[in-house]
Amino acid sequence: MDLVPALDEPLKKVLGPATAKVMAEHLGLHTVGDLLHHYPRRYEERGQLTHLADLPLDEHVTVVAQVADARLHTFASARAPRGKGQRLEVTITDGSGRLQLVFFGHGVHKPHKELLPGTRAMFAGKVSVFNRRLQLAHPAYELLKGDAEEAIDTWAGALIPIYPATAKLESWKIGKAVQTVLPSAQEAVDPLPDSLREGRGLVSLPEALLKIHRPHTKADIAGARDRLKWDEAFVLQVALARRRHADAQLPAVPRRPGPDGLLAAFDDRLPFTLTGGQQKVSEEIFADLATEHPMHRLLQGEVGSGKTLVALRAMLAVVDAGGQAAMLAPTEVLAQQHHRSVVEMMGELAEGGMLGGAEHATKVVLLTGSMGAAARRQALLDLATGEAGIVIGTHALIEDRVQFHDLGLVVVDEQHRFGVEQRDALRGKGKQPPHLLVMTATPIPRTVAMTVFGDLETSVLDQLPAGRSPIASHVVPAADKPHFLSRTWERVREEVSQGHQAYVVCPRIGDEEDDPKAAKKQKSPEDEADKRPPLAVLDMADQLASGPLQGLKVEVLHGRMPPDDKDVVMRRFAAGETDVLVATTVIEVGVNVPNATVMVIMDADRFGVSQLHQLRGRVGRGSAPGLCLLVTEMPEASPARQRLNAVAATLDGFELSRIDLEQRREGDVLGQAQSGARTSLRVLAVIEDEEIIAEAREEAANVVAADPELTGLPGLRTALDALLDEEREQYLEKG
User: Fold this and answer.
1) How far apart are CA 93 and CA 97, in angstroms?
2) How confident is the model over 506-536, as pLDDT tens digits?
3) What is the four-CA torsion angle of 481, 487, 492, 496, rounded to 10 degrees?
4) 408: β partners
5) Which helix (H) or strand (E) holds 632?
6) Distance (Å, whole) CA 433 – CA 413
């Protein structure tokens, strides 16, 4: 669907090397097909002006407006000391608001002649603030001459397409390039089966491409978008359906636990009963493990819902049935923590082959990249001989040298850090493909699960175990109300005085790992607005220890500390020897310290919604209530503050993940999710188009069931090859 053989023509042949270079570097467009699939973001109508009142700060915008006023000023400056400096100020209006344009120096002559009051034009530039007013400095512009045939023709009659653009390439230049390649749209090969297209009343692909770029009516746009959404949803769902179909053909060893083996002994040890949700999900997993095809299941559970326990019971069931189980964690800190908590939960059942080990015991080994050679050799030996029933490690487990005696189950923690290819590498470790259980604490709306993890069946744990406490969350507006920040540190002291502990999270480490060039490049609008780098762990820890938290035991934890040091710090905190842990997001996942009751997140606006939700889940894990304070300097009306208010208002991760998706583009969500799915959906909106995705999934399953090789659908095969090529490329680039 992306690249169709007839549309493979490189842009540099069609548009010339200079334009093609900018398109490739800034928009990722390389061929005629790529450009045809670069759809307009919105459309302007000639009679209707854009709302200048709604301009977003620090974004490249394109507006259609009328010049209200233009004044040329002279001024003295270092470059023009005799008052010869020139500044042209042009005010434009659209009925909803006014916006100032400024041009300096030699750049004033052309606009001074052309931008006369009453002139209408398209203006493009980056919105900035000067003297508390929004302005565009040196915007590019294109005059709209209502009577000139050529202009009406170029802008396709009534509707002007506004393309996603960059500083180097304005929307109208992209529009002109699209006009040049539009005739090639006739060559586009249609991926949708005729029966599906006709049954749903969708227009053909060439017609959809023509109408999305040169619509005459709003109905043209709607028809084209419906059709292109179906393309994206359907081709992606066919890729996933084929994957599910191929998986279902694989053989696997059924793993059924014995009636009075390791699993039964473990359940007898548990000091509590499983929640209804844990029992239901465990049954789903055990049913999958008993079949002759590999299980592929996604286990979603709110932070603290007891996923690890469910996964451990599945691992014990497999060991009971004579196999081995491997658990993959995204970081060494997490692998060590999982290992510790599994060994604690199992007690003498984890001491297989040792004196004092229980009758059904097995060995639980840890395997990470930083282990000493001797310990590593022993762990590898225990895996190869089958002595170790359970291994917990980082992706070091996927390395070729690791040999298993009989790998029956792979549990992957925090799916979004693991791509499809890594899952495949691990599958190859078993004599037959092992069963696969993927855990994530990031709640994923149903449609995203169908889109991103469409090759996995889904189980959801939505009950919190008994004894978990509610977490109160509040936004602390440090700039508007500095006394709220002082109160934050008082609250931390109060909790510590009651025998509890606290986390303080900062976005940055602060040992100047950030090279100044990178820092310059990655300025967000908020950074520009306040010109302050994000707060750093090392600075913050010093300030707190010598200031508001003086006398308390404050320690730091971040990702670039040596693994042993991290482990020592975490152990001290878990043992209650440290009062306050100042950390980066290394504590986001899997850290379990029931005595920690306060989480203070500094510069909370620099984190994503699901990340904040994850961090908050680190407190309230014991019987004392949890408190999460989101500290920010963002002004009340800003989108960042609205995001934080949403997090403070609900503890429902699924609700937050919907908010997160609505606020961010899906491309980001799918891109970070895994290389196994489309990273940039162009017209399909995962939340809004729930119905299309669900229907496309059904249609795709039917098509694949009837013709797994798609022999009768060459257009669909081509589209699929393009999608998967792109996927493979991305995976290789990620390395």
Assistant:
1) 6
2) 988 876 554 444 444 444 444 444 457 788 8
3) 180
4) none
5) strand 626-632
6) 19
Amino acid at residue number 408:
G
- Structure-token pair, residue 648: 């403070």
Are 235 and 37 in contact, with CB atoms under 8 Å apart? no
Q: Are 416 and 440 in contact (CB under 8 A)?
A: yes
The candidate with the shortest Cα–Cα distance to 726, out of 665, 671, 678, is 678
Q: What is the pLDDT of residues 272-314, one digit of tens each?
A: 888 888 999 999 999 999 999 889 888 888 766 788 899 999 9
Helices (H), 635-713: 639-649, 653-663, 666-673, 690-706
Q: Strands 501-505 and 596-601: what pairing?
A: parallel
What whole-number distance in Å separates Cα of residue 295 and Cα of residue 301? Answer: 18
Please report the pLDDT score of residue 102 as a whole number. Answer: 92
List all residues 6 or more positions away from 22 whose beta carbon is below 8 Å from its beta carbon: 166, 168, 169
Query: What SS3 string covers 402-467?
Result: CCCCCEEEEEEECHHHCCHHHHHHHHCCCCCCCEEEEEECCCCCHHHHHHHCCCCEEEEECCCCCC
Which parts of 506-617 are beta strand (E)? Answer: 554-557, 580-583, 596-601
pLDDT value of residue 248: 81
Return the sign of the alpha-carbon dihedral for residues 653, 659, 662, 663.
Answer: negative
Q: Scan for tokens 């900035």, then name that residue.
A: 128
Q: Give the whole-number percent of the chain exceeding pLDDT 70.
A: 81
- DSSP-derived letter for residue 506 is -
- Which amino acid, one-letter code, is at 374? A
Fill in the amino acid letter for 422: Q
* Chain centroid, CA 397 distance in Å: 25
Region at 527 (left for phi over 0; alpha for psi -120 to 50; beta for the rest): alpha
Q: pLDDT of 224-233, one tens digit each?
A: 999 999 988 8
**Structure tokens given for 493:** 């002291």
Q: Sign of the CA dihedral 127, 131, 137, 143?
A: positive
Indicate the SS3 state at residue 366: strand
- Distance, CA of 443 to CA of 462 (rounded, Å): 10
Cβ-contact 508, 535 below 8 angstroms: yes
- Phi and psi for 142 in degrees, rounded to 5? -135, 120
DSSP characters over 140-206: EEEE--TT-HHHHHHTTTTEEEE---BTTB-HHHHHHHHHHHGGGGGGPPP-S-HHHHHHTTPPPHH
Task: Give the number of other CB atoms < 10 A from CB of residue 714.
Answer: 11
d(C-alpha 373, C-alpha 66), whole Å? 73
Using a cut of 0.90, tell me whether the model's pTM lies above it. Answer: no
Whole-number Å distance between alpha carbons of 324 and 391: 8
Which residue has 């050529």 as its token pair?
A: 150
Tell me the three state secondary structure of residue 284. helix
User: What kind and span of H or E run contains 31?
Assistant: none
- Distances from the Cα of 194 to the Cα of 198, 578, 695, 699, 712, angstroms: 6, 67, 16, 13, 11
CA-based radius of gyration for the chain: 29
Q: What span, in angstroms and rounded, lies between the C-alpha atoms of 615 and 617? A: 5
DSSP 589: S
Distance CA 155, CA 163 (A): 12
For every residue of 83-131, DSSP letters joined together read: TTEEEEEEEEE-SS-EEEEEEEGGGGHHHHHH--TT-EEEEEEEEEEET
Quick check: 607 and 613 in contact, CB under 8 A? no
The four Cα atoms 33, 36, 41, 47 give a dihedral, to 10 degrees, of: 170
Dist. CA 570–CA 322, nearest whole Å: 35
